[in-house]
Design goal:
By secondary structure, the chain is of the alpha/beta class. Strands 3-2-1-7 form a four-stranded parallel beta sheet, sandwiched between helices. A hairpin with a 5-residue loop joins strand 5 and strand 6. The longest helix is centred in the middle third of the chain and has 29 residues. It is globular and about 55 Å long.
Length: 327
Amino acid sequence: MNSEKKPFTKSILQLENVEAKSIHIAEKLRNDVFNRLNRMGGVIGISGGIDSAVTFALAVKAFGAEKVLGVMLPEKDSSGDSARFAQKLADKFGVKTITENITGALQGFGCYERRDEAVKRIFPEYDPSAYKMKIGVKSSGLYTNLPPLFSVIIVDSHGNEQSKRLPATEFRQIEAASNFKQRSRMAMLYYHAERLHYSVIGTPNKHEADQGFFVKYGDGGADVMPIGHLYKTQVYQLARHLGVPQEIIDRTPTTDTYSAEQTQEEFFYQIPFEQMDLLWYAHENGYTPEEVAPVMELTAEQVKSVFVNFERKYRTTEYLRMGPIRD
C-alpha cells in the first residue's frame, strides 16, 4: 500500500471538523450563487429526506432564511410523511414554503397511465385502485459479477406481494414514465427560481451523482449541487451538526417515487449506505480488495464483485452526466 495512504478503517470517512466543513460548503455556495451565477438566493425542493434537509440547512447558512424558498412537490403516490417532515424542516429553520401538487401535470403527461400499461403487461390483474406497485433489484446478485436483474412488485390491500422478473421493454417504459415526476418537479423549481431571480439548489449526494441515481434534467438538472462531493454517511454527520430534525435523520431513505413504499437500497444500491460508502471510497482511492475485505468482514472476491458493480454503474450511467454534444 502507498505509504502516504491512510490505513483503511471503518472511521476513514469521519469528517475531522464538521463545523469547518459546513462553513466551507456554505461559503462556496454563497459565492457560486451570488457571484458566479449572479442570483439573489436559492430555491430547493424539500421532500423530508436527509439529502434535501442538509442541502436546505446549508442554504440557510449560506444565504439566510429570508433568501431561501422551500418548495414541496407532492403527487398522488407521495408518502404523507414527506410533506410533514418537509414542513417540520422549514419551520425549524424559519423558511417560507410553497406546496405545488404536480399530480395534474403528471396526469396530463400520461405518467400514471403509461406506467400502469407496462405493469399490466406483466400482471394482467393489476389495478392501481386495488394494488400498489414498485420495482426493485435483489441484493443477492451483488456478488455475482452479473448485471442487476430488476423485478416489478405489486402489493394488495392486505400487504401481500407478488413479484415477477421485469423485462427490458417494460422496465424502460416504467422508468421513462416515472421520470416525468422528477422532470416536472424541476420545471416547477425553475419557475419559482426565475420569478425570484434565485438559483435552483440541487440535492444529490456523491453516490447519486457518481453512480447515476438521478434523472437527467430532473433532479440532476439544478444550478449547483453543494453536497455532490459528500458520501451519505458524511451527509448524516452534517445533518446532526446543523440541527436537522431527528425524525428526518432517523427516517429510512426512500425513493418516494412508486405507490408502494421502497427504500433506495432495494431500488438501486443493493447494499446499506454505511457499507457502500466505505467500499466506494476504497474503490476510488486505490485500496485493494485484500486490504478492504477484513475491515468489511467480506471476502476479497466479494469486494472485487462490489467494485465491478460500481464500475458498471458508473460506465452505464455516464450518459446521464453528459451535457449536450456540440459539434
